[in-house]
Structure formats: structure tokens, C-alpha cells
Design a protein that fits this description.
549 residues; binds flavin-adenine dinucleotide; five-stranded parallel sheet; alpha/beta
Length: 549
Amino acid sequence: MTGNNAGDSTAAATNLDAAVIGAGFAGLYALKKLRDELGLDTLAFDKAGGVGGTWYWNRYPGALSDSESHVYCYSWDDELLRTWPHKSKYVPQPEILKYLEHVAERHDLYKDIRLNTGITSAVFDEDAARWQLTTDDGQTYSAKYLVTAVGLLAATNIPKIEGMDRFKGKIYHTSRWPSDAGIEGKRVGVIGTGSTGVQFITATAPVVNHLTVFQRSPQYSVPVGNGPLSEAELEEIRRDYPKIWEGVRKSALAFGFEESTRPLASVSDEERERIFDKAWAKGGGFRFMFETFGDIATDEAANKAAQDYIRRKIDQIVNDPETARKLKPNDLHAKRPLCDSGYYQTFNRDNVSLVHIGENPIVEMTENGIRTADGVEHELDILVFATGFDAVDGNYKRMDLRGRGGLQMRDHWSEGPAAYLSIGTVGFPNMFMVLGPNGPFTNLPPSIEAEVEWISDAIGYMERNHVATIEATPQAEAEWVRTCEEIASQTLFPKADSWIFGTNIPGKKKTIYFYMGGLGAFRDTLAAVANDDYRGFTLERELVNATTG
Ligand SMILES: Cc1cc2nc3c(=O)[nH]c(=O)nc-3n(C[C@H](O)[C@H](O)[C@H](O)COP(=O)(O)OP(=O)(O)OC[C@H]3O[C@@H](n4cnc5c(N)ncnc54)[C@H](O)[C@@H]3O)c2cc1C
């Protein structure tokens, strides 16, 4: 039974077997596995007022998955797969939230989730070999296992702008969108044109009085191709699910389509154009980059062909040549690929203006809006930050998280985060990260499942074999990071500035945040490590077991 000492700050820590931080896709599944399959006393904590993680927080207009609905879900609940009524090809935020709330209800998870409860500190007590947790309302918990499911796009990033406190209007971050935002009929400014910005801009332009888009860098975006899923299509998906999931688990990107191996140079110019046209008509950012040709992300000439195609599309779509010029990127098409529901078309509207702050930087905020270097004051009622996240390690550094010898995670990762298999890091025994640094770059639920299942198996092994602690070795971690670096260096991704290498945040070190070897290879490695007695981890037996033989 899990105890509760709510309201009694002097009470001794509540003892748990396992504590899970986060109640999104990762935390919900971790709670389910540890509690229901291993029978461990487990509690999950989330500072949010509900479950859902990303989809609890990101309620901005236009919020939509860019993974297709039938693979942006769990694969482990057969009955749910056969009955959940996916309505459209991509999933709007309210639908994903509804799905995750349904999962929590259906599996009776709520009773073991403490919502509105932030974990402010987690400290490893070496003598007891247990984690000591403190919540933001002063409660304390002790747990042998700590699963951090804190999200890789969850720690908000708000850049500092001179004079921000002078602004008399309202300021919102897209991931903290208030239900009474009241943007209709207002003069709205938005900073950022990444995945969120592109969705937000397209959705809000028709309802605001005026939208001023402050673009930090131009983006390659392709149509998302969203639309309703018919009953017949859904039936077909349900019938094919075993095959679909098998393909997803073996694939590189886990997006549920066959990744192309065809080199771009292997086809004629006409054929290339036909393939791109087909992908543009069908939609999907990952599809455009990875289903068309096998080398857009690895070969500069192939990448250039994709860039040129999208630049031509921008020229065709955008009426004003100067606006089109500003919208056209000139760098590699090597960020997380974007897709949209009419992004470039939005700039043909009379009530939308584009300020390229890459060329004409923001100088300050005034009482009335934003002043740019050309001296223009852009008057606004509301400023929206679509500036994304302190990705991957952000939430780890925002907690007081201490491992062996009081080692602070902030210090441990001061030169950039590193982890073994994205799950363990040196000096933090019995802490299991889901989607920690150096994890797969994919459609994420299948990677979350792979990691949670591995973690649950490892904890099961520890329980059966009286293992007190498990900890990544420095050699294994360094080797894994090298592997990630080597694989990334064979792609074009490190050559583009983006959050996937930490370069969206001034001062954040450019480093390798992902394993780009694909989910299939990642799963094989996880299995091989477990089968090889948890190679690369040090396991210490419990003393009681050692003395009793
Ligand atoms: C707008 C947007 C669109 C996205 N679209 C896609 C997509 O189409 N496909 C895709 O694969 N991925 C997408 N992602 C990534 C998405 O984050 C993952 O797919 C997935 O939802 C991650 O689940 P998670 O459980 O790991 O983390 P999250 O859903 O981020 O949940 C983490 C939770 O941890 C909680 N938490 C963190 N620190 C603490 C603390 N100290 N104490 C208590 N609670 C804490 C947070 O409140 C949060 O609720 C998108 C992300 C965003 C922001």
C-alpha cells in the first residue's frame, strides 16, 4: 500500500518502492508497469493539474501532433488500439489529452498520481541507497527507484528582452496558454517560427486583428496533409496494427511509414520532381524528408534539391516577393522537419506582417509593443512567445537533483548532458531517465515504450536478484556518447542550428542530445545490454543478501 502524509510536514518520509516524476506518455506507462506488473509501491508526481504532460500544457490555438494519430499512441493496450476512435490523420491537442486521460482512468492510475505536486528536490542517500524526494508543498518521500519522465520538450524557454517589464499588454508562452487568452480581435505579436510557431501563426491569423510575426530564422515547412480518417481507413489500420507496430519497432524513425533508401541522384530530374510533388500533396514533414529519398538528411546535394523545391514553393505561394525572400531559408534543411496547415499562405493575408529579426533585430520592448533596430515600434496588445524549450536536460537542471556525494545534476552536466542509452548517468544510481539525453530521435511514444519496458525489466531483475543499486559506468557512458556523436556526424543535422543540438538557447553548449541510429538499432542495443548482464552498468548486491549468502 502506498502511504500518504499529506498536510503533515513534520511526518517522516513516506516510503515507496518507486517514484515517477511526470505523468505524460512516459510517466503514465512507467507507473502502470512498476505498479501493476512488478507490484511495487509506486507514486507518480506531476506539477501539472492533470495528466498528459506535453498535451496538458500545450493548449495554444493550432496545437497538433506531427506524428500520425495511429502511431502517436501506446501500442501495449490491445483493446484500446481496437476501439479508440482516431478521428483525423494527425491529432489535435484536445484529442491527445482526452486519450491520455482515458488511459489513466482505464488503468486506474489516478489514485497513484499526485497532481499539482512539483518535485523540488531529489537527493540520493548513499547510506540507505534510496532517493529522498521533497515536493513543493513540503512533503517528503523516500524511494529505492527514481524514474524521471520529466519530458524533453517541457522546460519553457523565454528569451530575455530589454524592457519586458515595461510592456502594458499581456505576455504568454505557447506552452502555458491560458483559457482566457482572448486574442480575438487583438493586435498580437509572436516570436518564433518553429513547429509551435508555424501552427500558432496559421491558426490565429484569421481571428486576430493583426498578427506581427517576429521570425528568428526562416523555416522549411511542408503541408501536413491533415484530414478526417474514415471508418474504413480506421478499420484497415486496426487490422494491420500488428504489422504496423512491428515495422515501427524495427524502423529508424518510428513514424509508421517505410523509410526510403533511394539516393536522390539515382533518379532523373523529372522523377525527382514527381516524387517531391507527391510527397507535398500527401503531406507530413518527416515523410517529405525520409520517405522520398534516403539521403536528404545525409548528403548535401540531395539536401539542396529538397531545399530548392521548398524555396520554389514559397515563391509560388507567397504573393509579395520581399515577404517571400524573408521566408526562404538559405541554410540546410536539417532541423526537425516542420509541417503546417497553410503557413506560407498566411503571409498573403492583409492582417499579417513579417519582421525578420535575423536581419532587423528586436532592440527593446516598450509600453506599447516591440521596437526593432530599424526604429519601428510594432504596437501590440499581446505578445506570444513561441520560443520552445530548454530541450532534453532543461527539467533536470531546474530541480535540485543530487546523486552520489551530493553531485548536482547542473554541475554534472555543466559541459552538456550525457547519458548511457539515455536511461542512466554516472553518479546517479537507481535513477532511470525516460528520454534522457542521447536517446532516439523518433516519433516518441514507441521510444518511450522501449525505454519504459527496459527500465521495468531492469528493476524486476534487481528485485529478483536483491540488487541494491544499478549505475552507469563512466566508460559505458563515454562510449555511448561517442557512438551518438559518430552517427550524428554522418548526417547533416549537426550543421544546422537547432534545439536538437541545444543551439536554440544562448549560452547552452552545442552538444549531442540524440542517438540518430534509429529505434530498431536502439532497441537491439537495449536488449543486448540486458542480456549481457546489464553490460555498462555496475550492479551492487544488497548487503543482507551478501551476508546471508
Ligand atoms: C507542441 C508539441 C508538439 C509535439 N508533437 C509531437 C509529435 O507530433 N510527435 C512526437 O513524437 N513528439 C511530439 N512532441 C514531443 C512530446 O513531448 C512527446 O511526444 C511526448 O509527449 C513526451 O512525453 P513525456 O511523458 O516523455 O514528457 P511530457 O509529456 O513532456 O511530460 C513531462 C511531465 O513532467 C512534469 N514534470 C517535469 N518536471 C517535474 C518536476 N520537477 N516535478 C513534477 N513534475 C514535473 C511536467 O509537468 C510534464 O507534465 C511534441 C511536443 C510539443 C511541445
